[in-house]
Amino acid sequence: MSANGRPSGQQTPPPQTYDSAFLRACRREPVPHTPVWFMRQAGRSLPEYLKVREGIPMLESCMRPELVTEITLQPVRRHQVDAAIYFSDIVVPLKAIGVDLDIKPGVGPVVAEPIRTRADLERLRELTPDDVHYVTEAIGMLTGELGATPLIGFAGAPFTLASYLVEGGPSRNHEHTKALMYGDPQLWADLLDRLAGITAAFLKVQIEAGASAVQLFDSWVGALSPADYRRSVMPASAKVFEAVAGYGVPRIHFGVGTGELLGLMGEAGADVVGVDWRVPMDEAARRVGPGKALQGNLDPAVLFSTPEAVEAKTDEVLAAASGLEGHVFNLGHGVLPATDPGALTRLVEYVHERTAARG
Amino acid sequence: MSANGRPSGQQTPPPQTYDSAFLRACRREPVPHTPVWFMRQAGRSLPEYLKVREGIPMLESCMRPELVTEITLQPVRRHQVDAAIYFSDIVVPLKAIGVDLDIKPGVGPVVAEPIRTRADLERLRELTPDDVHYVTEAIGMLTGELGATPLIGFAGAPFTLASYLVEGGPSRNHEHTKALMYGDPQLWADLLDRLAGITAAFLKVQIEAGASAVQLFDSWVGALSPADYRRSVMPASAKVFEAVAGYGVPRIHFGVGTGELLGLMGEAGADVVGVDWRVPMDEAARRVGPGKALQGNLDPAVLFSTPEAVEAKTDEVLAAASGLEGHVFNLGHGVLPATDPGALTRLVEYVHERTAARG
């Protein structure tokens, strides 16, 4: 750290980015207004996204730096959100190291040969920056375009990646994953450790290219009890967070249905814990404990209701979050595909107005 | 109540049923062993079920008393569970009052014309015993066959029924349902109140025919925050429980992902609160408070692991439940279709042995 408290080295964001409302809130410093961004803000809810993606398969679109840059910028232009999130997919680093997988429209990631034995592990080699050169290129372009707006790097967490690899695709019940986790704890631990290394390397590439925060998404981890999380997942997630600790960028951790896990997800090493809409923000703060910022948590389905209802529910979130050390406003899950983009733009304005008046 | 503490009237089960381990646990009385049953024990995991259902659509199978009787008895014969659950589907009472719906294999219930306006409400008339005469017939046969084994009656809760009706089918995000709930609270309340009346009437038919407990399934209610549950769902669920309170049969209430709602679901009027696998039983007991029994909560996916892992995880559940006032052992969700039936039979034996030794 330098004398003024900023991290030293090439990863220090420019001063106006460092002092943005989003990064200040992540660091639990006073803010001019509560910062807002939306998970999945870049994507299916925007007509301009559907237009530029036309005819381009999902994974291919993640490997084209110009396209990634355009898609990442679209919601910043349209909604005036306080942070951009790097457009990617959870399985991009797996594809990059040669796992035979594809993202099937309407289904999700499908893995040709699921990983279930020790021999299968050998297919998961380490990730190098060259494997994802398009990420470095895209982030180089993005930081130039974004100006003071911070860019959030993005990766899937080891448990969620493991679920896709072991099941061979999206799964509602994670039977094969849990069968392995309970039935062969050593193989499971080795699998998650390997995935932690890949994930950490992927996040490092993004930070070194210019991302000024990272979010580790553990989409499916809400399927576990606290005891199983602590025993079978937390060591790998902690390894990821530890690997990027030296950069001094805020580390956000989010999963859906994780009310029972919030404390442990903070303990794993997150600076900011994401909260879904099921747990009120003040109760989430109690579970996470002091020294962490929180992110959340308007139910994305509320945006399908009336403008008055959206404002009323937003007020509930802001009221519950009013005592937090740091609050990043977000939805409690990703933007739903059929969401009216206008409702998102109005929501950003509303949160800014309401919290600027208070500040 | 009569002098010996049993409920009076024709719904009193025969003494050996009344004194069964299952009903004693529901009443928080000492038990010879922890009773066990499984949600979805009658169904897709059993080859004998697949055989008798062959070529018969789901809803039709729910309306044939001999078939319902056979399917309800199958898991009792095979696994020696401590209770039977009436074979039905959540949408049966809606079909019975004339809602145009069908259960599509691989999809679930599909409603031809979703309910979203006040005029639509008129399509939901009251349910009379004549609408479900096959239920009365089936339960008459069942109680004869079951002997001392209690029969659990079964209905979907108002919120879950409303979600199917408003969405027009199964929904991951319940957008239309929540849009209505937040956007037109009076229409929403009227819809849920009407569904509560239908559900209560359906449960009364089952109790009067001989069911000695009931379970109200709120499959989707875990999609709500506690504030929304209290405001928009609890009054209707409470109306159902209140309507059947006079019979003196235990009332079980269960939903998935309801860690935040357990206390409120008990408060709604349940005697037994079902717990999914995400919340340890001792923590669930803390949230529910005294004066209620709990049901749960082995992760159904554990059954895909090794026998040793199943026993270890079962021991964890039993240890966490050891201080409860009353414990009914169950899975934390329904039996998954690909579950090995032998694993379920062994699990019943194991819980009986472990808890008889302690008792």
Automatic annotation (TrEMBL), chains A, B:
Stored Gene3D superfamilies: 3.20.20.210
Any one biological process term the GO annotation gives: protoporphyrinogen IX biosynthetic process
Reactions it catalyzes: uroporphyrinogen III + 4 H(+) = coproporphyrinogen III + 4 CO2
Record keywords, A-Z: Cytoplasm, Decarboxylase, Lyase, Porphyrin biosynthesis
Binding positions (substrate): R40, Q41, A42, G43, R44, D89, Y164, S219, H333
Entries under PROSITE patterns matching the protein: UROD_1, UROD_2
Major location category of this protein: cytoplasm
Source organism superkingdom: Bacteria
A single Gene Ontology CC term: cytosol
Residue ranges of every copy of the Uroporphyrinogen decarboxylase (URO-D) domain listed in the record: 35-44, 152-168
Site, Transition state stabilizer: residue positions: D89
Classification via Pfam families: URO-D
E.C. code: 4.1.1.37
Annotated localization: Cytoplasm
Enzyme superclass (EC): lyase
GO molecular function terms noted in the UniProt entry: uroporphyrinogen decarboxylase activity
Pathway involvement of the protein, from the record: Porphyrin-containing compound metabolism; protoporphyrin-IX biosynthesis; coproporphyrinogen-III from 5-aminolevulinate: step 4/4
Function: Catalyzes the decarboxylation of four acetate groups of uroporphyrinogen-III to yield coproporphyrinogen-III.
Family classification: Belongs to the uroporphyrinogen decarboxylase family.
Subunit structure: Homodimer.
Name listed for the protein in its UniProt record: Uroporphyrinogen decarboxylase
Species the sequence originates in: Streptomyces solincola
